[in-house]
Specification:
Elements lengths: L2 E2 L4 E2 L5 H15 L5 H8 L5 H13 L3 E3 L5 E3 L8
Length: 83
């Protein structure tokens, strides 16, 4: 948080590694595959759909999340096993 008063709160968007952690936590908590739009509903104040999509692509290339053919993403963990 950069600034806060009675009327407004100003925050910085999370860095890429922070956004990765946030998205992994959402997917772990939901315990089901989610679309980019569903994830964006949680993060709309701090990240665009495109930024979420790029982050999911990175996590998918690291085999931390699985990208389903229907466009949903699922957390699989760091060893390829669901946590």
């Amino acid at each position: 948080m950069l600034y806060e008063d009675n009327d407004i709160v100003v925050m910085l968007a999370p860095h890429e590694n922070e956004l990765e952690k946030i998205i992994m936590e959402i997917l772990k908590r939901e315990k089901k595959p989610l679309t980019v739009k569903e994830i964006h509903r949680y993060l709309e104040a701090i990240a665009s759909e495109e930024k979420i999509r790029r982050t999911l692509y990175r996590l998918s290339s690291k085999n931390v999340v699985r990208h389903h053919k229907d466009g949903r993403y699922e957390f699989v963990g760091f060893n390829g096993e669901k946590k």
